[in-house]
Amino acid sequence: xxxxxxxxxxxxxxxxxxxxxxxxxxxxxxxxxxxxxxxxxxxxxxxxxxxxxxxxxxxxxxxxxxxxxxxxxxxxxxxxxxxxxxxxxxxxxxxxxxxxxxxxxxxxxxxxxxxxxxxxxxxxxxxxxxxxxxxxxxxxxxxxxxxxxxxxxxxxxxxxxxxxxxxxxxxxxxxxxxxxxxxxxxxxxxxxxxxxxxxxxxxxx
Length: 205
Hints:
Layout: H1 7-16, E1 22-25, H2 48-54, E2 58-62, E3 70-75, H3 78-87, E4 96-98, E5 103-110, E6 117-120, E7 126-131, E8 136-142, E9 148-153, E10 158-161, H4 178-181, E11 187-189, E12 198-200
Parallel strand pairs: 5-10
Antiparallel strand pairs: 1-2, 2-8, 3-5, 3-7, 4-5, 4-9, 6-7, 8-9, 11-12
């Protein structure tokens, strides 16, 4: 089906890939109001009425397996985002968006997906989120505080293994204890819904 009259949808699919499910979000809001949206599949993207709805407000991407293992890593402040990007130069070529502050970097994970996690610093302050399955991130439209969401880098999401991500030493995951914080080697952090662990690197190198 031609998407010629759906300019926003066509642009976003060119950037994020045609394996990505897009979600309609009311203007000036962050959350999709569609019933059962975490269960949406690519079948939705073939419905002209759904595509028309996407053109009328904000647009988010559905993260996780439904969108080809797409995840986003969101940092609330520039200093944390810059430190993360410095440690992961490969992600400098990936899709990158900005809202009111900080920014989101998108990538496609090979093999097993991590679960959603709140990212905190040494003092327990929230500094961002790792968003995966059953999560969404707004990439187009108007932020609740009036600024416009922008796609800073319109390159497609980089594909890489989760264990290739280098986490700066200020990042703390849920369940990470003091002993693991002081360990310079990769540690185990409970990030998977099935109770298994994924390896993260907190050494900052």
